[in-house]
Amino acid sequence: MSAHRRLLGWLEDQLLNPRSMSSSLLFCLGVLPFLLIFLGLHALALSRPDARALYHPGMLVALQAVVGVLALVLAGIASYCWPRRRDERACRWLPQATVTPTVMVLVGLGIAYGLKDTPVGLMVLVTLLLARALFGLQPLKPALYIAAAMVLGAEAAQRVGLMAYAPLILAPVYDGTPMAPWWALWTRAVFDASMVSCAAVVFFMFGALARRRRELEHLVRTDMLTGLANRRTFMSQLEIESHRHARTKRPFCLVMCDIDHFKKINDTWGHPAGDAVLVELGRVLRSTTRRQIDTAARIGGEEFAVLLPETDLVQAQHVASMMSQGVRSQIFEFDGQQFHVTQSVGIAEADGGDGDGAFRVADDNLYEAKRAGRDRIVASLARQA
Fold this sequence. Notes:
- The structure is a single chain.
- By secondary structure, the protein is α+β, with helices and mostly antiparallel strands.
- The chain has two domains: 3-221, no CATH class; 231-381, Alpha-Beta Plaits, CATH 3.30.70.
- It is built from 13 helices and seven strands.
- It has helices at residues 3-16, 20-47, 49-52, 59-81, 93-113, 120-135, 141-159, 181-221, 231-248, 262-269, 271-288, 313-328, 355-371; strands spanning 252-259, 295-300, 303-309, 332-334, 337-339, 343-349, 377-381.
- A hairpin with a 2-residue loop joins strand 2 and strand 3 (303-309).
- Helix 5 runs antiparallel to helix 6 and helix 10 packs across helix 11.
C-alpha cells in the first residue's frame, strides 16, 4: 500500500474513530496555516504605511500578539501530541484546551474585521467543521457557547453604540467603490484559504463516509467467516436470476452442498477445526466458480449454495465435481493429527423461472446424496408441477 493510501486510511480512522491525541494533533495542523496567514498579513500591513493607515492604531499590534500566542500554544500542543499520536487513552482536557481558545480567537478576529462582510466568518465555520469532524459534539460545546456569546454580545454592544462594527478597521472593506489594493490582497488570501480548506474537509468527510457505507453494505451482504455471500444476498440473487430465466429461457442451476459428518468434526477436533473446514470450503467454492457471474453463499451452518447462471445440468455436475474434489484433497491438521473431509451435493436445473422450486429440489437432492452414503452428487431437473 502506498504512503498516500496509508495516510488517507489513517485520516479516515481518526475521523470515524476519534481519539484525543491524534485528533488534537490534526486540529492543530489544520488551524495553524490559518493563523500563519493572519500573522503574515498583519506583519505585511504593519510594514506598509498605506495598509497600516486602514487599521486603528495599536489594535492591530495587540491582535497580532494574540494570534501569535495562539499559534505558539497550538504548536506546543502539536509537539506534545505527536509522539503520543497512537495513544488510545482518552485525555478529556486536551480537545477543549485545543478547540476553545482557537474558536475564541478566530471569532474575535471575525468581530474585529466584521463577520458579515469579510471571509473571516467562513474561516470560523471551517474551523468549527473541522473540530466537529475530529472531536464530535461534546468537546465542542464550550467553544460553541462561548462563540455564540461573543457574537451576540458584539451585536448588542454595536446596537447600543458601545462598539463600532468591525472595530479593527477605520473604513468598511466594501463601500461600493473599488477596494483598496490592500483589501483586495487581504480578502483574496483569506477567502481562498478558507474555501480550499472547506472544500478539502467536506470532500474528505463525504469520501470517508461513502467508503464506510460501502464497507457496511459489504458486511450486510457477506458471511463473516467464509467471505461468501450470505443467505439474504443469495435469495435476492436467486429471485433476479429466476426472472431472467423466465424471460429468456436460458438455463441456470442451483448447487447445494454441505460437509459430511460436520458435527463429528466439531465434537472431535473442536469448533476452531470446524471453522477451518468451513473457511476452506468457501475458498474452494470461490476458486471453482466464475467471478461476478456465479453466486456462492453460506446459507446456514455447514450448508452452502451456488447459483450458476447460463449453466445446464451437465455443466453444473462438472463444477460440483471439481468442488468436491477440492474439498476431498484438502488435508486438515489439529493437535498433530491429520484428517480429511468430504461433502454431499444436490443439484437442480430450474424450469420455467421457478427459482424457489429449484431451491427445494436441490435441497432434496442434497439429502438424497446423504441418504445414499454421502460424498456424492445427486442432480435432476426441477420440473414445474
